[in-house]
Write a structure and sequence with these properties.
- The protein has 193 residues and is α+β, with helices and mostly antiparallel strands.
- Helix content is 17%, strand content 45%.
- It is built from 4 helices and 8 strands.
- The strands form 2 sheets. The chain has a 4-stranded mixed beta sheet, with no helix packed on it. The chain has a 4-stranded antiparallel beta sheet with strand order 2-3-4-7, with no helix packed on it.
Length: 193
């Protein structure tokens, strides 16, 4: 009785032998994992330069950043021609402080903070086209102490074609010594007009 072998028999034998060799090599994971400074490691890294170590802790650190609070009764500013601000027809313009945002980063003398504020300004019945000034105060209170207080004047140009306009402002000069006990307070300061 004659046996016939197909022409792929040598290839099949070769494949089985290679698979057995690879499985034997898998028993030692170190054989498959080249070090970073070996020839294979340099090839895989794409460079012959010495490998560097990255300090992962610098990416894990969280910078605490105090919340921003709009002080009660300071989120709206109404400027009138006189009399009671709720009287009909006396409002020249009105502005609102609607949203806030903050960003903190480590600084040389504490935490550097940036606080953003945004809102809308609109002309009232007694308003006219022109530039209006919004007195905006930013305060940092750390415990019982005020460590930062600054009055900013934000200007908004209202026109007859655009009697209502969004405004935004960022205070980038804030330094916070102890963010764990700090509060950032913002609002319109009518005394600053």
């Amino acid at each position: 009785m004659r046996h016939r072998f197909s022409s792929s028999f040598p290839a099949t034998v070769f494949g089985v032998v290679m698979a057995a060799a690879l499985l034997g090599a898998c028993s030692s994971i170190d054989a498959l994992t080249p070090s970073a400074d070996s020839g294979v490691g340099k090839f895989l890294r794409g460079t012959t330069a010495e490998p560097t170590t990255i300090d992962l802790e610098q990416y894990r650190k969280k910078v605490s950043c105090p919340r921003v609070e709009i002080l009660p009764d300071t989120h709206t500013l109404r400027v009138t021609t006189g009399g009671n601000e709720y009287e009909e027809g006396v409002v020249r313009y009105q502005a609102t402080l609607a949203t806030t945002a903050r960003e903190c980063a480590p600084g040389s003398d504490g935490k550097q903070a940036r606080v953003g504020m945004a809102g809308r300004a609109l002309s009232g019945p007694k308003g006219a086209a022109g530039t209006i000034k919004l007195p905006l105060r930013v305060v940092v209170r750390e415990g019982d102490s005020v460590t930062y207080s600054k009055l900013h004047v934000v200007t908004v140009e209202l026109t007859s074609a655009e009697p209502s306009k969004d405004w935004a402002f960022v205070d980038s000069d804030i330094v916070i010594n102890n963010p764990e006990i700090a509060k950032i307070l913002v609002g319109f300061d009518e005394k600053g007009r």
